Amino acid sequence: MEKKEVDVVIVGGGKACRELLALLEEYEPKHLHLVILGVADINPQAPGYLYAQKKGYCVSTDFRELFKKFPHIDLVIELTGSDEVLEKIFKTKPPKTKVIDHLGARLFWEIISILQEKNLYERRLQQLEGMKLYIDIIAQFAHEMRNPILVIGGLCKILSKLEKIDPKTKTYINAIIKEVNRLEKLMDRLTFISKPLQLNLKLVSLNQLVRKVVENFKRELPPNIKIKLDLEEDIPEIFLDEEFISQSLYELLQNAKDAMEKTGGEILVKTKLCYDEVAIVVKDEGPGMEKNILEKATMPFFTTKAQGTGFGLFFVQKVVKTHGGVLHILSEPGRGTTVVMELPVRMFYPIPPV
C-alpha cells in the first residue's frame, strides 16, 4: 500500500518542536509520509527553530510567511500552547489545511513514545534471552579452562626456577607465565559474569569514597584533562560495598579519560541526594556515542576501543543492580557522555527476606 504524503508546518519552535522533529526522524508512520515544510517561531534562537535550520528545513519568525510560501499545506501542528496563536492559525491558514493543536500533538507524541518503548523492551528481552544462554556457555567454558591453565602456569613456574636452563628457554617460559596470568584474570572475569555478586555491605560516607577515588585517579590523568568535584553536602552514610562501588567509579573515570584522550577537557564528578536515592554522576566532554553503540554499551565484551575488554560498563551495571540501583547512560554525538549510578539510601543494614 502506497503511503499518503502529508505536507506539514510546525508553529512553535521550542523544545517540544526539537524533540518532535527528532522523534519523526526515528519513527516512520506506516501509512503516512510526513514531509516537514517548515518551522515558525518568534524566537530564532529557540531550540526547535535552530534544529530545523540545521536540518535544512525552511524557518520563519512569522508562520503566515510559511502559509504564503507553501499554499498547499496539509497539516499545521501548533506547539506554542497559546490559544491566541491557535486562533490566528485558524484565521490565516489555507482553507483545506487541517490543524492539530498542542494537546493533540502531545497525545500523538505520547503514543509514538509508547510504541518506541514497547519496541525497545522487546529488543532488550530478546537480548536478555540470548545473553542468558551466552552466559551459561561462558560459565561452562571458564570452569573447563581454569584447571588446565592453573596446571600450565604452575609447571612453568617450577621450570623457571630450575638451575640447568638456558637464558633463551627461560625467556620463553617467563613469556608463557605472563600470558597464563593474563588468562587467569580473564577466567576471573568470565566467572564474575556468570555468578551473582556477594556484597560486603557496611556504612560508608559516599562523599569520602568519591573524593578518595578521584584523588587517586588524578595521578593517572594527562595534563590536558582536569577533574571537577561537586559533592552535595549532608549526604548520610549508607550501606554499600565500598570496594565494588569504588571500582565502578574508577571504571567510569577511566572511560571518561579514554574518551577525552585526544581532545582534552573536564571530567565532572557529582554526588546528589534525592529523597531515598543517592547518585554518583560522571560527565565527560568526549565525542559521545551513537545510538546503536549506546544500546550495546553495557553488554559483556562489547567494546569500541582497540585495547578494550568490553567489561567495564557491564561490571558497573552489575554492581549497581546488585545494590538495588539503576545505571543511566546519557550520550549524544558531539555532546559527551553522562553516566549516573543511582543507589538506594540504606542507613540500616538490609535484612534479607525470609
Automatic annotation (TrEMBL):
Pfam families: HATPase_c, HisKA. It comes from the Bacteria. PROSITE patterns: HIS_KIN. It catalyses: ATP + protein L-histidine = ADP + protein N-phospho-L-histidine. Keywords: ATP-binding, Kinase, Nucleotide-binding, Phosphoprotein, Transferase, Two-component regulatory system. One of its GO terms (molecular function) is ATP binding. Its EC number is 2.7.13.3. Residues 140-347 form the Histidine kinase domain. This is histidine kinase.
